Amino acid sequence: ISTGYLLSRLLGALGSYPGHRLDSLSILDRVNLESWRGGSQSPGLTFDHLKTVLLWASVLFPAPEDWADLQGSVYRLLVVLLCCLATRNLPHFLYPEHNLLQDSGLDLGVIYQRVEHFASQPEESLRIHVTHLGHSRPPRIDNGVKALLQLPASDPTYWTTAYFDFLLDKFQVFNIQDKDRISAMQNIFQKTKTMGSDSS
């Protein structure tokens, strides 16, 4: 059975749920094509890469409220994508032991920089006309976030909802009221704080 067919069926099923899952995929596909790949002039992420990121994000963020607003939905894909690029590992959704970034021939460092720039200041890439120029928010990524993105490479147990919730909180797009998830996120924060003090 073709895995492509199965993945397409999964995406179709996601489209039937309320929220902005497919909208966020569409936005990142446009940014990838126009900005990260320069209108397909340079090699880069494919739509299949982005679809896989959406499927993982849907598993990591299962609650309807995760997908209720468009900005938060886009950032759910972005934190997963940034983590995959930082650790150079995008697991195949059906065969997680297979890394879709391995042997791809892509310059993952360059792609990471482009995705990071977008995540830090998305307004610049989403402007359609010069009249949309305005005050940009300060960058959302600092050295602490960059270090956090590397954690699953050294310890795969960080590949959890709590870890990605912590990243969303750093990007100021968490907005979840579930007490259990907030508690789990705070536990990850304490764990990383302990790691930071141990290494200093």
How would you describe this structure to a colleague?
With 200 residues, the protein is mostly helical. It has one domain: Poly(a)-polymerase, middle domain (Orthogonal Bundle). It has helices at residues 3-15, 21-36, 47-60, 70-87, 108-120, 122-126, 143-149, 151-154, 161-170, 179-199. Helix 2 packs antiparallel against helix 3 (47-60). The longest helix has 21 residues, at 179-199. The N and C termini lie far apart (51 Å).
CATH topology category name = Poly(a)-polymerase, middle domain
Tell me the count of domains: 1
Major sheet description: none
* Range of strand content: under 5%
Task: Classify the oligomer.
Answer: single chain
Number of helices: 10
Mean residue pLDDT:
86
> What's the helical proportion of residues?
55-70%
- Termini separation: 51 Å
Backbone CA Rg:
17 Å
Count of individual beta strands:
0
Question: H/E element string?
Answer: HHHHHHHHHH
Q: Give the C-level CATH assignment.
A: Mainly Alpha
Shape: globular
Based on the coordinates given, report the CATH architecture: Orthogonal Bundle
| Contiguous runs where pLDDT drops below 50 for at least 5 residues | 128-133
Helix/strand/pairing category = mainly alpha
